[in-house]
Amino acid sequence: MAGPELVVRSTRVVTPEGTRPAAVAVADGRIAAVLPHSAAVPPGVPVEELGDDVLLPGLVDTHVHVNDPGRTAWEGFATATRAAAAGGVTTLVDMPLNSVPPTTTVAGLRVKRAVAGPAVHVDVGFWGGALPGNRAELRPLHDAGVFGFKAFLSPSGVEEFPHLGPDDLEAVAREVAGFGGLLIVHAEDPDRLDRAPRPEGPRYADFLASRPRAAEDAAVARLVAAAGRYGTRIHVLHLSSADALDTLAGARERGLPVTAETCPHFLTLTAEEVPDGATEFKCCPPIREAANRDALWDALAAGVLQCVVSDHSPCTPELKVPDFGRAWGGISSLQLGLPAVWTEARRRGYGLDDVARWMSAAPAALAGLTGKGAVEAGRDADFAVLAPDETFTVDPAALHHRNPVTAYAGRTLYGVVRSTWLRGRRIHHRGVLGGPAGRLLERA
Ligand SMILES: [Zn+2]
Q1: Where are the domains of the chain?
Q2: Per residue in 266-285, pLDDT tens?
Q3: How many CB atoms are closer than 10 A to CB 40?
């Protein structure tokens, strides 16, 4: 073992080849080697003994709405990345909308980077946005380092981020394919939504009926068709409808470059248990029935869905009025994704290797973050240290994101994140956070 600056040792290190006792040598912020647990450590090198706590790769959350600048009362870079660090997330990629300006021009990207730079506690990258009117901005944004382009097929909820009509989608898919970019899409079909009953009032069942599975299914089919026509790499965001899984599986069988993610709330919560008026559970697409949730788990296990990311999308508490028609849609879970998913995963017989694949390796691969996503020589020394058998009860006031609203309030979850490490530095330990040590990332 030559020249490490730190060795981190655990009886349970989650590596791409499985979980095993190991000593992880760190040099220059990277993993120099993953060695046997008993490997000799050169004198003078500090050893962090984790005992039986599990060493996971730091989570990579590619779906976070930071909303900064412009809607900073909803969330900001300092608060969001503190929540990330406390939750074992070492990299996040910020969505292009809900901030003002949105990340739909190079100038907008510069504004975001300037605001984020001094504030971030974890590494942060940026998605760009594809609008009906900004096609000429896509290539320059790609060259400026965004990881891909988000688009909506139905209204986004904010007027500065209009959705793509059918012709726009074709043009954007062609344009993005032309420079080898990635298109990530909120997949709900606006015509199906228009034909559904209006959401109104406190009943969750009414809200669910207003966002039918058919809207997602039709949109996913359109995206698969576009990927087939132009060869565009397309990623389906926050899939909720299990009825779209066959279409996604078929696309993969045909070798199309289509991937998809789902979210902790779709995997852990069910429509049946949402209390009326509880709009902290409102998001689009919606949390569906228990049987739908089971099918999403099966699709993750089968690789039809690859990523689990938060879609952390907060707002001020006043916007969560107890009326599903009027409340802002979005669930705040950046700090809770790992324990929420782990609690349900362990109940279903999955291991932390699976969780690491869904929440770290696959999102890193989606964004092309080759230095992230695994405990493996050459990657950044980004770790989440988890006590998987300990439980805690979610107290919204103890969360670090800006507004103490979350659908997980009062739930008892397995998995306490003991510490979080970014490039070999401990940035969070037992609830205490360090300074803003994150970096801004660009597409490689
Ligand atoms: Zn989102």
Answers
A1: 6-55+380-433, 61-367
A2: 999 999 999 999 999 999 99
A3: 9
Other CB atoms within 10 Å distance of the CB of residue 400: 21
Query: How far is the centre of ligand 1, averaged over its atoms, from the C-alpha of 153 (Å)?
Result: 13
Cα 8 to averaged position of ligand 1 atoms, centre (Å): 35
- In the CATH scheme, what architecture does the domain 61-367 have? Alpha-Beta Barrel (3.20)
Q: What sign results for the dihedral spanned by CA atoms 84, 146, 237, 55?
A: negative
What's the CA gap between 149 and 138, in Å, rounded?
A: 8
- C-alpha 45 to ligand 1 mean position (Å): 43
- Please give all residues whose CB falls under 5 A of ion ligand 1, grouped by chain where several chains appear: 311
Q: What is the pTM of this model?
A: 0.97
- Measured in Å, residue 424 CA sits from the centre of ligand 1 at 30
6-55+380-433 homologous superfamily: Urease, subunit C, domain 1 (2.30.40.10)
Q: Omega of the bond prior to 140 within 30 degrees of 0, cis?
A: no
Cβ(239)–Cβ(300) below 8 Å: no
Of 291, 186, 283, 205, residue with least CA distance to 242: 291
User: What is the rounded distance in angstroms from the CA atom of residue 39 to the CA atom of residue 381?
Assistant: 18
Distance of CA 206 to the CA centre of its chain: 28
Q: Is 359 exposed, middle or buried (0-12, 13-18, 19+ CB in 10 A)?
A: buried
Residue 47 CA to ligand 1 center (angstroms) comes to 40
pLDDT category of residue 26 using cuts at 50, 70 and 90: very high
